[in-house]
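MODEL INPUT / OUTPUT PAIR
PAIR INDEX: 1
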Amino acid sequence: MTSEELESIIAAGLACTHLEVMGDGRHWSAVIVSADFEGKRLIQRHQRVYATLGARMQTDEVHALSMKTFTPAEWAASPDQH
């Protein structure tokens, strides 16, 4: 899987205002900004992203995914913003 493919999968299941995915084909990191994260705790945000990946997490197609998740307001105030 490529980073573009993983980005497309996440974007298809979650409305993102910003999405960056980097990785080596099995180990991934992502910066995800979505209004869907409003009012959600970190674990709930991560569960929402894992839900978009579905079976890909169980079949080891995506072996590991580290995430930074933000609401649009959090992203606007974040030093991680590029």
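PAIR INDEX: 2
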Amino acid sequence: MNSRFTNQVVIVTGAASGIGAVIARHFADAGAKLMLSDVNEKQLAAVAEEIAASGREIPAVKAGDLSKEDIAGGLIKSTIDTYGTIDVLVNNAGGGIIKPFLDHTPDTLRTTIDRNLWTTVWCTWHVVPIMKANGYGRVVNVGADSVRNGLWDHAAYNAAKGGVHAMATGLAREFAKDGITFNVVAPCIVNTPQVQKATLMSPQALQRFVDVVPMGRAGEMDEIASMVCYLASKEASFVTGQVISVNGGSTML
């Protein structure tokens, strides 16, 4: 175990599976005190138990739908009640309903916006006053490279993730002198369990998303988590308002 985040309190949302669970493990391995959140209470508990079984500090957990303001506020309050402070917020909760725009219904559009944008808005809105009072904080959002390259069937998802990107840049300027940084990690297609399952069902449909990546493969969850941890660290003190793609070159700037 390294000591990069020893004695730091880190919230990871969407931590019950996939990228969020891997991010949580990276922080645990670096000594963080964790608060994990997700809508899936059973899987969330399993991730916490797995981290504890590896010899790391037992994470606190708080399940709920973070697109609801009161639930997000409850997560922040529970973290303060448990640990007394908050150093890092990772807004990873999300999950798009990926389909052609005209195939969406009002319900699927609302769900996509709720999962990806409102979860980030409410958690950030509740945590920033605490970080401002402390004179220190790191907010890292998990966005999407599709916002930059306009992938097929991603218009609704991009509407939500584009808001996540834009909010981070605005907040970075607003709180630049308060010791808080706001950044976004924007992955391309990632080799998550969900993607693996979808590939088995429709390999040709998924391959077109890989084909836009010059490296010719999906990203790995550890590659995304590593960038999240860097931006959440003290080493990234002069990095703020950035959308950093981890994408094998699918967009370049």
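PAIR 2 NOTE: The chain has a mean pLDDT of 95.
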